[in-house]
Design brief:
Keywords: Repeat. The protein is mainly α. It contains 27 helices and no strands. The N terminus and C terminus are likely disordered.
């Protein structure tokens, strides 16, 4: 499905130390990791550690063990960025006690900053731990970090991005006397109400912003266009764009991508095309997000010849595809039940851009739902060979697929691997496997997995 000209390109290979460390991280059991790393002879640097931590963001405790090993190496000190990456990774798997231990370590080294606490607030809010997110904000001063407008905006953003704009608004109303809100503060709330979506409240925030003397900037306008599009007021969104242009505030490629995406969803392909052409007439250079929106619009109306033309244009202009580009095409083909073509796109995609966790999950789910467990397992193996760590959702999709075929032993091995990485499976996934183990009278295996689950939940957590 992707054009042949794309298939000649190859991915940039990681430098050798990263390849070597990635292989160790993927293949070593937890008890042997430190000794294997010691034997590797690799000298760590800030950049190398940051790259590995980013690459293994989903690896849970394995990533933390690497972090601990690196801290013991001669002439090496963790960067603030490394601390932030691992704190986010630990919070993702709800290892809050270890996370706060690292905060205390950062305090002792004098490297704590506002961003540290903003990361923690975001992770708590995403886990719907409202009190813990507010506690993190309130405890900053005890750690010697100033509670300023950046921190306040960080708290509001944490709740807005986790779809709890009402809590963000409540906090804003109770604390705005303590801080002087800026355009970013109002933009955060505006975006939150847009995701709700609640257009009257968004308009109210916009008016308050202007009344308080905060002039809307390009970000604010972009959010307002997005809000209007989400609630089906695309004509008003277009008027906002025209008002911007007449006021000398040039619309961005993001704003055009929102309009094109909205027209695509509404099957208004001609309007999507015209908006793209208008953008070009206005001298705005299309980026990959704009092209992805246009590709999505063409996919929606099954005009795949146009998709190929867009891909050719991207290549001619030197705009590389990203995983989102191919995920849009793959999802569209799956929706049309063209699974063979979707698999072709996937196989060609790995030659031109790095798949993301969604790509692998989409493909594994497609094969599991199509009763093709062999290919699902091949994709899983390929993911492992690429040193790509699956997410909780990816694990769950394959475990559920194995359970559907009553491949209980393989499902148990996968669940144990999941727990080893510090990732807790959803209740529905564990429950499905539990029923099969009881059916097969394998209570001993169930007891073993229960113990590992309890160990994961109870021992390292502090929430």
């Amino acid at each position: 499905m992707l054009r042949r000209s794309y298939s000649t390109k190859t991915l940039n290979q990681f430098p050798d130390p990263i390849q070597k460390l990635s292989k160790i991280m993927m293949n070593c059991p937890k008890l042997g990791l430190e000794s294997t790393l010691n034997e590797s002879g690799i000298r760590v640097s800030e950049e190398l550690v940051e790259e590995i931590l980013k690459k293994f963001d989903n690896a849970g405790m394995q990533s933390y063990r690497f972090f601990e090993w690196a801290s013991k190496q001669r002439n090496y000190t963790h960067s603030v960025k490394s601390y932030h990456i691992i704190i986010g990774s630990l919070a993702k798997i709800r290892q809050y006690k270890i996370m706060w231990d690292l905060v205390n370590t950062m305090k002792s080294k004098g490297v704590l900053n506002v961003e540290t606490f903003c990361i923690i607030m975001r992770k708590y809010a995403r886990a719907q731990k409202v009190d813990e997110a507010i506690y993190t904000f309130n405890v900053m001063e005890k750690y010697g970090v100033e509670v300023n407008l950046v921190a306040f905006n960080g708290l509001l953003s944490a709740f807005c991005k986790s779809k709890n704009v009402r809590k963000a608004q409540e906090i804003f109303d109770s604390m705005k006397g303590r801080f002087v809100p800026d355009s970013k503060t109002y933009s955060i709330l505006l975006e939150g109400w847009g995701k709700d979506p609640n257009l009257p409240k968004a308009r109210e925030i916009f008016r308050e912003m202007v009344d308080k003397g905060c002039d809307p900037d390009i970000v604010t306008y972009g959010i307002m266009v997005d809000v209007l599009c989400k609630v089906g007021r695309v004509d008003e969104a277009v008027e906002v764009v025209r008002d911007m242009d007449s006021n000398g505030c040039k619309p961005t490629s993001f704003i055009y991508s929102v309009l094109i995406h909205t027209y695509g969803i509404d099957n208004q392909i001609e309007d999507a095309i015209e908006t793209f052409l208008e953008m070009e007439r206005n001298g705005i250079i299309a980026d990959v997000a704009v092209y992805n929106a246009l590709i999505g619009a063409f996919c929606k109306v099954n005009r795949f010849k146009n998709v190929y033309r867009v891909l050719d244009e991207m290549e001619n202009k030197g705009i590389p595809l990203n995983s989102r580009t191919c995920n849009i095409i793959i999802n569209s083909l799956i929706g049309r039940k063209e699974t063979d073509e979707a698999f072709k796109v996937f196989r060609q995609m790995v030659k031109v851009c790095e798949p993301d966790v969604d790509t692998y999950t989409i493909m594994i789910k497609m094969f599991c739902e199509g009763d093709d467990l062999d290919n699902a397992l091949k994709v899983w193996k390929f993911m492992s060979l690429k040193r790509f760590v699956p997410s909780m959702h990816t694990f769950s999709v394959l475990i559920n697929g194995l359970c559907a075929k009553e491949e209980v032993t393989k499902a148990c091995v996968l669940l144990e691997e999941m727990l080893e990485k510090g990732i807790q499976p959803p209740g529905s996934t564990f429950g499905r496997l539990r029923q099969l183990l009881i059916k097969e009278k394998r209570e001993d295996v169930l007891e073993f997995l229960n113990e590992k689950m309890n160990l994961l939940v109870k021992e390292p957590l502090c929430d």
